[in-house]
Amino acid sequence: MLSKEELIERVQQLESHVIQLRNLLKPKLTLNTHGEKNNAKVFDHKKYAKRHVLLQVAYVGWDYAGFVVQEHTEKTIEAELFKALERTRLVESRETSNYHRCGRTDKGVSSFGQAVSLDLRSNLSEGKGVFVPDGHQAKLGNTDEIAYVGILNKVLPPEIRVVAWAPVDKTFSARFDCGQRTYHYYFPKANLDIQSMRIAAQYLIGEHDFRNFCKMDVGNGVVKFHRRIIDIQIEAVDNSSDSYSMIRLKLIGKAFLWHQVRCIVAILFLVGKGNEEPTIIQELLDVESNPRKPQYGMASEVPLNLFTCTYSGEDFQWIYDVETLQYVISGYQTLWADSSIKATMLREMLDSLENLAGTKVENHLKGLVHGIEPKTYLPLMKRQKCGMLNLPAESFLTLPLWMHRHSVATAHSNSTMKRNLRYLVAWTVIQGSGFCNHLPIADVDMLDSPIGDAYFPIRNILFNDSSETAQ
């Protein structure tokens, strides 16, 4: 049990961590090739109007640390996107861009249809999504909008491309206005019984408590595990029928839990290999009888793709540019050629080895499931179970009296709501509840800021927000 002084020191450590995060997000000085400050004239954003838009962002995430900006690395999709946005002067800063993203994909996960909404510089003075902020003076008479997609793709890394854009109302949010999300997961057929996997997958359709099909995310405030799967399909990608043919699992839903898709795939693999019956899905969904998740390895993140984020509305329409699409296609063809050549080379080597051995070895899935595969398979329901989930949100809303006397002073903590939230964060950390496993969330002042949307999960409890995407 920590003493009062140790508890206060713990809170102060969290404050230091928040300061580090703020420093990370501060706009960096532009340097020239010699490392000196660029003396170019400062760009005046006040001479332009702004436009609230939705961008479709595609990326191959295998070599990135995930989508969301992180403190310990700049190798994230979001960090690269904002570098490009600031370099092209489309935004002044992330903090002033009214930024929302549809989902936050994990390390190694890719996307064809990630969507982000934000305010960009505009050449126009009127039109859908166009507005003139206080103190700005828009140029009149322009009829051509900035070629957002084209100029961004010129400065983005080759793995990241903007595919399309759409003008939207100022209140539109890429996250909260998303109607449904579609994930694709690719894997070789190997020796899997695809038909059994299809039968098992059908049990997943509908609204269920998926606590046995996810990684417990109480650190992000998620204590409700009901989600609705709209459809799930398992189909061949190519016309090949051998064990090297590729299969695509397509899963559609409105929102997902952390690692939900990868956990679902891992269980379906067990069914496909004949280790479990298709009805294992029903057993795991019956949380009354099986409230504790059996231990099993997750499927790999590399084959996972957030393929589409769907939006509706009579006047909503993506804007595509043929020339820009050709540029995107050409770049991704280069990446495809590199990967395809390597795959073809390995396939020929494997064919030769199998001819020499005189037998087929169907171990294609070995690298697609985390963990060590035991020599003797132990059925899921006989395995060791995870601890009971017993974290009602209301139990974390009562603070000790001394906590009310020891506020955490910051420059922006005047609001009673924010101050109380700060107490809540500090106390849940001290309790060891796991609600604050990710330290950056301790900065309550970021609740309504763009970065707050990424890092502040306590809103999930207070505002019953369960629409964040997680894999």
UniProtKB/TrEMBL annotation:
Matching InterPro entries: PsdUridine_synth_cat_dom_sf (IPR020103), PsdUridine_synth_TruA (IPR001406), PsdUridine_synth_TruA_a/b_dom (IPR020097), PsdUridine_synth_TruA_C (IPR020095), Pus3-like (IPR041707), TruA/RsuA/RluB/E/F_N (IPR020094)
Signal sequence interval, chain numbering: none
Coiled-coil residue spans: none
GO BP of this protein: mRNA pseudouridine synthesis; tRNA pseudouridine synthesis
Keyword tRNA processing: yes
Keywords of this entry: Isomerase, tRNA processing
This protein's GO CC annotations: cytoplasm; nucleus
GO molecular function, one term: pseudouridine synthase activity
CDD domains xrefs: PseudoU_synth_ScPus3
Chain ranges of the Pseudouridine synthase I TruA alpha/beta domain: 200-312
Pfam families linked to this entry: PseudoU_synth_1
NCBIfam families tied to this protein: hisT_truA (TIGR00071)
Family listed: Belongs to the tRNA pseudouridine synthase TruA family.
The protein, known as: EOG090X083V
Taxonomic source organism: Daphnia atkinsoni
